[in-house]
Amino acid sequence: MKTYQKRTSMNTKTTTKSLALIIIFVALAIALNVYGPKIPYPFAPYLFFQLWEIPIIVAFLLIGPKTGITVSALNTLVLFAVFPGELPSGPLYNFAAV
Predict the structure, then answer these.
(1) All residues at 6 or more sequence positions from 24 whose CB lies less than 8 Å from its CB, including other chains
(2) Is residue 9 within 8 Å of residue 51, measured between CB atoms?
(3) Which runs of E-coded beta strand occur in the chain?
(4) Total domain count for the chain?
């Protein structure tokens, strides 16, 4: 008699690890977006280098593009919730830039 086991496409340990990393990267991106310093470029003082992009790029490079896009999308959604009165173009431009 054969016994059949339900096959899953992802290992539970891998899924939990990926979810924990996504949460950490989203929290870092949000903290740096809200409280992080804005560093002006030397030759164009109206442009700013913002540190909140670093956790998103690290997630993209370490885990994969799907995770990087997820972290960026969650960051954008939280910015919509934190700053509801502002124009939605700012977080959407940030999402498109990443």
Answers:
(1) none
(2) no
(3) 38-40, 48-50
(4) 1
For residue 33, being part of any structural domain is answered with yes
CA distance 3 to 5: 7
pLDDT (tens digit per residue) in 55-80:
889 999 988 888 888 888 998 888 88
CA distance 53 to 17: 22
Q: Looking at the domain assignment, is residue 29 inside a domain?
A: yes
Query: What is the C-alpha separation between 83 and 27, in angstroms, rounded?
Result: 16
Q: Which domain holds residue 69?
A: 18-37+45-97
Q: Is residue 12 part of a domain?
A: no
Predicted TM-score (pTM) of the model is 0.72
DSSP 50: E
